[in-house]
DNA sequence: AACTGCTTCTGAACCGTTACGGTTCCAGAC
DNA sequence: GTCTGGAACCGTAACGGTTCAGAAGCAGTT
C-alpha cells in the first residue's frame, strides 16, 4: 500500500468531466447520486478518476455549495489539557462526542485557551454550529461565536437570551445541599469556590467580587447558599468564601487550609465542586480533623472519585449533559417550533447524595458560647 | 447581550460592498489586511457590516479560496468513548490537542467508530491534514484518508510506505522487557494481548492469527517476544497467547484467569498493555497468588495506575507521542526536505521500568521436573 | 515637465463544487 | 403514427470569498 503519485496539478471534477467528455453534473452524480446515471458510465467515471488521481469531490467546495460542513465546533475557554484531565469536563466532552458520533458529525475542538486572544479561530472554523461549554460571560470568543449565523448551544454558562442552553438547575441543587447542611445544624460555615472571573484571585472573594462574577454557574451556587443560610439567620457577609483559579485537588487543599487557618470555628466546608472538596478532605486529614465528626465537607458534581471517598455531594449527569447539548444542536427539532426565535432550555436532574462526610456539628452550642 | 436579528437574506461581502459603493476587494481587505485601506474607510465598512448583520467573511468560502481549512482531522477507529476513557489514548489525544493549540489549529474528531461503515465522513471532512491513531491496516477509513491529497501522520500503526509516522520502537521495547523476564529465569510464560484484528476473538490466538494480525503494534510486540524467547530455547508455539477484543481491566482479569486455568505452570505473565496487566494483577490476588513471588506480571505503556501499582512495564511518553504527531503535521519542516516524497519517521524513547511485580520464579527447576 | 514613489482602491480571474431546471432519447401505450 | 413517461444526461448559475496586477490620485524630486 503506498500513496498515489500526485500529478502536477490536482485533477478536479471539471477536468475529469472534460477528460470523459461528460458534464460536471454527471461526474458529481457519479459520486453523490449513483441512481442518476447508468452503472456503466459510473464505472467509467470512477475508473478514470482513479487513473487521473482524482481524490473525489473537494469537501470544502462541497460545503460551500451545500452550506453544510458536517462538523460542529466546541468552544471551551480553557487549556485543552484541562478538558482532558478534569473528570467533569471529560464527561461532558464524551457526551458531546457520543451525540456527534450518533449523527455522523465531526467534532472540532477550537483552540481558545486563556493565552489565546486571537478570536479569528472562531471566525475561521467551518462548522454548522457551536457548543459552548463553561465560558465566562465576558469572553471575546463567545461573542465571536454568537455573531456567526449558525445555531449554538451553551452548556452550563453563561445564560444568554435567545441561545439554547443545557445545564442543571444550579440554584435548586445548591439549595438542597444548603438545606441539608442547615438541617444538620451547622451555622458556622465556610465556602470553597472555583474561579469567579478571568482575573486570577486565589484567596478570599469579596461580596463585590461574588456579585460581579463572570462565571454564572459559580455565582448562582453562591447565591443559593447565601439565600438559604440567610433564611436561618446566617449573615452572608460573615461567611468566608475562598476562591481558587485553578481547579485541582491540590488547590482545594490549600484553599481549605487558608480558610481553616483564618476561621477555625467553622464546622462545615461547602465546596462548589468535588475536586475542591477532595482537596479539603485531604487537608482535613492532614490536620487530624475527623470528617464528619469534627468537620463536615460537601462537594458538587458527583464524580467517580467523590463517590469512592463517600463525599456528600450533588450528583449531576455530566455525560447526559454533553449528549443533550449535542442532540439539541444536531437534531433539528427546532424546525417544529413555530416561533423562529424560540429558545430551548434543557434542565438536567440533579440528585443530592448524602455520603459519609456530613454530620451534625460536634457541639452545636460551641458557636454560642465561643472561646 | 442577545443575538443579532437575522435579516431576510444573510448579507454577504458582495452585498456589503454594494451598499457601501466600494469594491469587494476593499471589504475583504477591511477584515484581512487593515493596512491596505484608510482607517476611516475601514471604520465605515465595519460599522455598516454591523448594521447589516454581516457576520464577517464566510469561513468555508475563504477556505475554498485559500486552500486552508485551519483544522486537522483525527481518525481513530474506535468508539469515541474509548478515546476518552483509556489513559493511553487520552494522553495521546491531549498531546495532539496541545500541538494544535500551539499553532491555533482546530482539531476535528472524525466519527469513525466500529459500527460506522460510512467512509463518507472522511471524504467530507474539510481539513488540512490527518492524524491517524491506532488503526488496523485494513481499515476502510484509512484508505479514504490516504486518498485525500493532504498530509497525514500515523501514530503507532499501521506502517505505510510514504506516510509519516510517530511511535516507539515497539520491537526494541518489548525485546528489552523479554530480556528482563528471561534474565530473571522465566521459561514458562504466558501472554495477554490486545485485539489483533477487527473480528472479535476473546481467547487463545493461534500462530496463524498472530501472523495475520491487522494491528501492527500488537504483532510487532508478539514477534519481539517470540524471537527473544526463541533464542533461549522456548518454542513459541507452546506459549499460550490470550487475546481480548476490549481493552479494560476487567478483560485483563478474565484473560489472566483463562490463561492460568489452562496453564497453571506459567511463572510469568507478559501483557502487551498496562490495562491488561492490572487486570491480571487483580486476578492473581483473587487466586491468592503472590506477585511477584508466585507470579511475575509485566505490562506495557507506563500509565499512572501502573506506576501506582508498582507494575514492571515499559514506559512510553504518550503525550509526547501525540504532540510529536501534531507538530510533524502542522510545522511544515517537510518543505525543507528536497525530496518531495520523503517520509519522516519519529521514534520515541521508551524506558523499561522495573517495578515490584517481577522477580525470579519460585523454583526455576519446577518446569523441568513438572508434572 | 517628466519621473518616481506611495497610498488607496478597483476589476476580473479564480477556488471546485452542487442545485436547478431543463433537454434528449427511447420503449411502450393507444 | 402520435403521445407519454421515465431514465439519462447537460448547461447555467450560483456558493462567498481572495488575490494579483494595475489604475488613479497626489506629493515630492530632479
From TrEMBL, chains A, B:
Top-level taxon: Bacteria
UniProt entry keywords in alphabetical sequence: DNA-binding, Transcription, Transcription regulation
Pfam families membership: Peripla_BP_3 (PF13377)
Positions of the HTH lacI-type domain: 11-66
GO molecular-function terms, A-Z: DNA-binding transcription factor activity; transcription cis-regulatory region binding
InterPro entries: HTH_LacI, LacI/GalR-like_sensor, Lambda_DNA-bd_dom_sf, Peripla_BP_I
Protein's name in the database: Transcriptional regulator, LacI family
Amino acid at each position: 500500500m503506498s500513496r498515489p503519485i500526485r500529478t502536477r496539478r490536482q485533477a478536479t471534477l471539471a477536468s475529469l468531466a472534460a477528460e470523459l467528455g461528460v458534464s460536471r453534473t454527471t461526474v458529481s452524480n457519479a459520486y453523490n447520486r449513483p441512481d442518476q446515471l447508468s452503472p456503466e458510465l459510473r464505472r467509467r467515471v470512477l475508473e478514470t478518476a482513479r487513473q487521473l488521481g482524482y481524490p473525489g469531490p473537494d469537501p470544502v467546495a462541497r460545503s460551500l455549495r451545500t452550506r453544510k460542513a458536517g462538523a460542529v465546533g466546541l468552544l471551551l475557554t480553557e487549556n485543552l489539557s484541562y478538558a482532558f484531565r478534569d473528570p467533569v469536563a471529560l464527561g461532558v466532552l464524551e457526551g458531546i462526542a457520543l451525540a456527534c458520533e450518533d449523527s455522523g458529525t465531526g467534532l472540532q475542538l477550537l483552540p481558545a485557551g486563556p493565552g489565546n486572544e486571537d478570536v479569528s479561530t472562531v471566525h475561521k472554523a467551518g462548522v454548522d454550529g457551536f457548543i459552548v461549554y463553561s465560558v465566562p460571560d465576558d469572553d471575546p470568543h463567545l461573542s465571536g461565536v454568537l455573531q456567526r449565523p449558525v445555531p449554538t448551544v451553551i452548556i452550563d454558562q453563561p445564560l444568554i437570551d435567545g441561545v439554547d442552553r443545557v445545564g442543571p438547575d444550579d440554584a435548586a441543587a445548591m439549595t438542597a445541599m444548603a438545606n441539608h447542611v442547615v438541617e444538620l445544624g451547622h451555622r458556622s460555615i465556610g465556602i470553597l469556590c472555583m474561579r469567579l472571573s478571568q482575573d486570577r484571585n486565589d484567596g478570599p472573594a469579596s461580596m463585590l467580587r461574588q456579585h460581579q462574577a463572570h462565571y454564572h454557574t459559580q455565582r448562582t451556587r453562591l447565591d443559593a447558599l447565601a439565600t438559604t443560610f440567610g433564611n436561618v439567620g446566617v449573615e452572608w457577609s460573615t461567611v468566608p468564601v475562598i476562591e481558587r483559579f485553578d481547579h485541582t485537588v491540590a488547590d482545594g487543599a490549600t484553599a481549605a487550609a487558608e480558610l481553616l487557618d483564618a476561621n477555625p470555628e467553622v464546622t462545615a466546608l461547602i465546596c462548589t465542586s468535588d475536586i475542591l472538596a477532595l482537596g479539603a478532605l485531604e487537608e482535613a486529614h492532614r490536620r487530624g480533623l475527623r470528617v464528619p465528626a469534627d468537620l463536615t465537607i460537601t462537594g458538587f458534581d458527583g464524580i467517580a472519585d467523590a463517590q469512592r471517598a463517600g463525599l456528600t455531594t450533588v450528583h449531576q449527569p455530566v455525560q447526559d449533559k454533553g449528549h443533550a447539548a449535542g442532540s439539541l444542536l444536531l437534531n433539528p427539532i427546532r424546525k417544529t417550533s413555530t416561533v423562529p426565535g424560540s429558545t430551548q432550555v434543557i434542565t438536567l436532574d440533579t440528585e443530592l447524595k448524602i455520603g459519609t462526610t456530613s454530620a451534625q456539628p460536634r457541639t452545636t452550642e460551641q458557636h454560642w458560647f465561643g472561646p
